[in-house]
Design the sequence.
């Protein structure tokens, strides 16, 4: 047979779209042509595949005109993931392996010059894409063949049938011509579908002494899925609080863990040790807009997507480039980011919780009881003015983190533990899920009016506060959703005046600093 077909997948955002690797051998001047919108990394596969086949002791048809087509032709292909399917296609077209046995399998893997298989990114996205038809159609699922490191990730999907291989010869021995049992290969085996069972470990909130107001704000943010801005002097504990926030969130479900792991796999950051651990991404304030929201060619996920179902911690918030901060406005509302380029469009999930921290002024000591501030009012106004009103309007909770005196810090007892706070957060989340099927932060439109019902006194209080403070419609709705979360923590059915009053206090930190 001079024509063979091998199946693989290309990544476009979080999607793993099917690719058919067609290999044709013909008489004529010896050549090796690769077509199908392949980038430089894919075109370099010609030399890797040639050397891998020869060094594995197999025959490379160097006296033939080899044409490899990666279909569909309009789908961009990148990375070395197509090395293995191209090599198998050449071997099948030249009759060294049985092309019929390749049906029902999908392959991905980068080849070394000696024939060893190297891991590829995005293997979990491939496995998820293969497993999707389980819900709708009873057709048999393709079996996935991957390098050893990538196969461990792909096997986390319960429905997937994944095989791992260490060398090109391990794969070839399974598809030799004939009806006999495939030759045993030490590097070939099916990978069991099992996720690590250990409990995630997070820093304990008990390490934080004092800061009752900030701790309360973190509890509310965790219970309702709200974003939070902490304003305080240097060393007051803002970073310490943010690093312990992920431990307050409820345990991840299997679907959430798979989503998070798939995005991390695309970014090349996933390890089995991170399974079901809420991610905490803390980019430096010099990060660009592309680093935060994603981009490049092909599009890669940014920090907001790598923090999906977890925490995005932005320290020194006013020091971030203005364009980078403004790019966060849409994802904070929608929970996803769409990256559009001239020839490509990719969508990544970005349902993160924003934890931001900043100093109240350039010197950091405005309002501090320990040191005097040396900044002029104009300097303070310019510093705080780096944050736009629309961005601040999208941050639900603004809280001041005061500095503790030395004797308070040394003599203060340990704070309440993460486990105790997490239990209250879990109960509040369960109330919200039973009532509306989502966290309070995700409410929108008519759902806010339906689920955040206030008694008459609370409604009057909120109306007066919003008028005096000049809030926008978004600000009123966000305050109302925070009040609903406070009511859930208290186990109350309707939102009352005390709940609204506390919610109002969490939108005034910067105004009080002027």
Sequence:
């Amino acid at each position: 047979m001079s024509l063979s077909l091998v199946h693989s997948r290309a990544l476009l955002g979080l999607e793993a779209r099917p690719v058919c690797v067609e290999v044709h051998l013909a008489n004529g001047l010896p050549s090796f042509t690769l077509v199908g919108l392949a980038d430089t990394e894919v075109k370099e596969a010609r030399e890797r595949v040639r050397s891998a086949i020869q060094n594995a002791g197999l025959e490379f048809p160097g006296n033939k005109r080899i044409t490899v087509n990666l279909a569909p032709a309009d789908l961009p292909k990148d990375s070395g993931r197509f090395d293995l399917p191209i090599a198998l296609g050449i071997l099948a077209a030249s009759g060294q392996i049985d092309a019929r046995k390749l049906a029902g399998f999908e392959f991905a893997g980068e080849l070394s010059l000696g024939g060893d298989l190297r891991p590829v990114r995005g293997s979990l996205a491939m496995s998820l894409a293969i497993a999707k038809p389980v819900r709708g159609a009873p057709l048999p699922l393709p079996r996935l063949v991957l390098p050893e490191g990538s196969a461990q990730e792909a096997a986390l999907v319960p429905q997937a049938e994944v095989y791992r291989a260490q060398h090109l010869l391990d794969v070839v021995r399974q598809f030799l011509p004939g009806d006999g049992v495939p030759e045993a290969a030490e590097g070939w085996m099916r990978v069991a579908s099992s996720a690590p069972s250990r409990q995630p470990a997070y820093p304990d909130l008990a390490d934080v002494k004092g800061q009752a107001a900030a701790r309360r704000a973190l509890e509310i943010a965790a219970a309702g899925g709200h974003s939070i801005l902490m304003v305080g002097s240097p060393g007051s504990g803002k970073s310490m609080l943010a690093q312990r926030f992920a431990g307050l969130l409820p345990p991840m479900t299997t679907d959430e863990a798979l989503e998070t792991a798939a995005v991390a796999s695309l970014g090349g950051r996933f390890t089995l040790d991170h399974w079901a651990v809420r991610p905490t991404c803390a980019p430096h304030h010099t990060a660009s807009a592309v680093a935060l929201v994603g981009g490049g060619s092909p599009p890669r996920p940014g920090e907001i997507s790598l923090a999906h179902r977890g925490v995005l911690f932005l320290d020194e918030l006013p020091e971030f480039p203005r364009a980078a901060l403004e790019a966060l406005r849409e994802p904070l509302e929608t929970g996803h980011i769409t990256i559009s380029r001239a020839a490509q469009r990719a969508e990544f999930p970005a349902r993160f919780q924003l934890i931001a921290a900043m100093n109240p002024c350039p010197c950091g000591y405005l309002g501090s009881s320990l040191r005097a501030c040396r900044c002029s009012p104009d300097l303070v106004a310019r510093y705080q003015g780096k944050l736009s009103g629309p961005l601040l309007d999208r941050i639900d909770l603004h809280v001041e983190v005061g500095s503790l005196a030395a004797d308070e810090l040394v003599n203060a007892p340990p704070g309440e533990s993460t486990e105790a706070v997490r239990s209250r957060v879990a109960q509040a989340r369960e109330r919200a899920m039973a009532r509306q099927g989502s966290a309070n932060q995700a409410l929108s439109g008519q759902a806010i009016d339906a689920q955040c019902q206030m008694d008459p006194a609370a409604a009057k209080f909120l109306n007066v506060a919003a008028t005096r403070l000049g809030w926008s419609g978004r600000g009123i709705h966000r305050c109302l959703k925070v009040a609903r979360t406070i009511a859930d923590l208290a186990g109350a059915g309707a939102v009352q005046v005390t709940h609204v009053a506390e919610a109002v206090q969490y939108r005034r930190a910067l105004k009080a600093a002027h």
In short: The longest strand covers residues 15-26. The radius of gyration is 28 Å. The first helix runs from residue 40 to 43. The chain is about 35% helix and 15% strand.
